[in-house]
Specification:
Elements (H helix, E strand, L loop, with lengths): L1 E2 L6 E2 L6 H8 L3 H23 L4 H17 L1 H14 L3 E5 L2 H15 L3 E4 L3 H6 L1 H7 L3 E4 L2 H8 L16 H15 L11 H18 L2 E4 L3 E3 L4 E6 L3 H7 L3 E7 L3 E2 L2 H15 L7 E5 L10 E7 L3 H5 L15 H5 L1 H6 L10 H12 L4 H5 L9 H5 L6 H14 L1 E5 L2 E5 L6 H14 L2 H13 L10 H8 L12 H8 L6
Length: 498
């Protein structure tokens, strides 16, 4: 992993576009088995947890409304947040892109004289590639979330927003712990088995020494409350509580869209998030802090507010709804594409349906990987149905497909950029023009339908040409019915006229 040249942060250099990466992933039987078991388990539990609330749909509508109101007045709430954090003893830094955020954090750690930091699970720091930037500066970052620890020890990449090691089974995790723990600190216990309790105990012992030794902690935040300058982290393991309270210096890197106006607004999301993510009524650990307090918690607190393409996304009236996302990962767990392809195929720290609309807006669609992401969906709509803040992901996917296919001007990193139409879409545009011509001429459409029905036995199972073969290698062509709907209607319901 490394930072991309445009300052937008970490990308998987050398990753193929989604269709090629997914084609490779679906041939991995172990991966598919791991994903199928995990996603089905999580989605079933979530459905039961959500069904307990009679007002779930009202809560969902309230979450959407709060997010939309906040995004419309984002400048106001961010300035209010900065004022409150500063009043409470914190220091606020503004980062336009990933490179600036990494530079700020690196300088802050260097100023402490420390060469190690402990980290709370953070999508924002994954987005910027902070661990790699710190390593280049001679600073080692230790992930303390269990799943992130597994990914880090395995020299791997996260594949899920909530459960980054979802692609690993217990046997693989045991082998990683046995092989790698000793190189990072306390080794795995002798005779370590693959039981959940044994693996969790090995991780606890390994991390405990790091919690007690670390002087600098790095976190993200699930929410920031503008009216008081309070940051909120919700988690299930307690590692976050350790990182947020034991170090002398705490640095939080948070996307600017994570702000909410008031504590009353926060209450809505503290109901929506746990049920949608871990299928819990409430999180086991909900940590909140406001600046610094003498004799309690870190002595110094720094908040790094990250833009990194969010302001550009906000300018798109359709695409901006992606900024409502509260990172629950419910959309991943119901997505048939994600279940079969896995998270690595997306080439981004944000996999699944939300990644397919968020990443191309944050990074732009100039690369082959990012241009392919809006097509990494069947548009079935399951993601929209489970989203706790009602993000219409299919609508945004279609908008982004239009951008990729047609090109045109967009704002990227504050600069107007002209996008060239994506390669390989000329045939698609020609087909759409032909379809429009036929659909505007009922007589031509009727004749075409009848011809297709009468020649149905002669139709090939595979389409010709490179594009046709690529389409039908993984899809069965639909069988043409013996009679068109129009003719059936005339025969059974019509008056016999043509």
């Amino acid at each position: 992993m490394s930072e991309s040249g445009n300052g937008r942060g970490r990308t998987d250099l050398g990753m193929p576009a989604f269709p090629r990466a997914a084609a490779s992933a679906v041939r991995d039987a172990t991966l598919r088995g791991n994903l199928r078991h995990a996603t089905h388990t999580i989605r079933d539990k979530r459905a039961k947890a959500v069904a307990e609330l009679a007002d779930w749909h009202e809560l969902r509508a309230a979450g959407k409304a709060v997010k939309d109101r906040t995004l419309r007045h984002l400048d106001h709430y961010l300035m209010q947040l900065e004022e409150r954090v500063t009043d409470a003893g914190g220091v606020v830094h503004w980062a336009a892109d990933a490179a600036e955020a990494n530079r700020i954090v690196t300088d802050l750690v260097r100023a402490t004289g420390e060469t190690e930091v402990v980290k709370v699970k953070s999508m924002a720091t994954q987005e910027t590639g902070l661990n790699e930037a710190l390593e280049a500066a001679g600073i080692r970052a230790y992930e303390t979330d269990l799943a992130e620890l597994i990914v880090q020890l395995g020299h791997d990449r996260p594949s899920h927003i909530l459960v980054p090691a979802i692609h690993r089974n217990r046997g693989e995790i045991r082998d990683i712990f046995r092989k790698e723990m000793g190189r990072w600190g306390r080794p795995a216990p002798d005779g370590l088995t693959d039981t959940p309790a044994g693996l969790a105990e090995a991780a606890r012992l390994h991390l405990r020494e790091k919690f007690l030794r670390a002087r600098v902690g790095v976190s993200g935040a699930n929410f920031m409350v503008a009216e008081t300058g309070t940051l909120v982290v919700v988690e299930s393991e307690g590692n976050g509580r350790m990182c947020l309270t034991l170090p002398e210096t705490l640095i939080s890197v948070v996307g600017i869209e994570k702000v909410v106006p008031t504590w009353r607004d926060l209450e809505v999301f503290l109901q929506l998030l746990p049920r949608s993510s871990t299928a819990e009524r409430m999180n086991p650990y909900t940590s909140m802090w406001t600046g610094t307090t003498d004799g309690d918690g870190p002595r110094a607190f720094h908040l790094v507010l990250l833009d990194n393409g969010r302001t550009d996304t906000l300018a798109d009236e359709v695409g901006r709804q992606a900024l409502r996302c509260i990172r629950c990962s419910a959309c991943l767990n119901v997505c048939p594409v994600y279940e079969r392809a896995g998270g690595h195929a997306y080439g981004s720290v944000y996999p699944g349906p939300i990644g397919a609309i968020l990443t191309p807006q944050l990074r732009g669609t100039g690369s082959e990987v990012d241009a392919s992401l809006p097509y990494a969906s069947s548009l079935c709509g399951a993601c929209y149905e489970v989203c706790p803040v009602a993000i219409d992901i299919p609508e945004v996917l279609v908008r982004l497909r239009e951008r990729v296919a047609e090109g045109g001007e967009v704002t990227q990193n504050g600069v107007r950029v002209t996008l060239r139409p994506a390669k390989g879409h000329a045939a698609e545009r020609a087909a759409m023009r032909a379809a429009r011509w036929a659909l505007d001429r009922p007589g031509v459409l009727r004749a075409g339908q009848r011809l297709a029905s009468r020649t149905r036995r002669l139709h090939p199972e595979r389409l010709p040409g490179r594009a046709g073969r690529a389409w039908t290698e993984t899809r069965a062509l639909p069988e043409v019915p013996a009679e068109s709907f129009r003719d059936w209607w005339q025969r059974t319901r019509g008056d016999g006229s043509r």
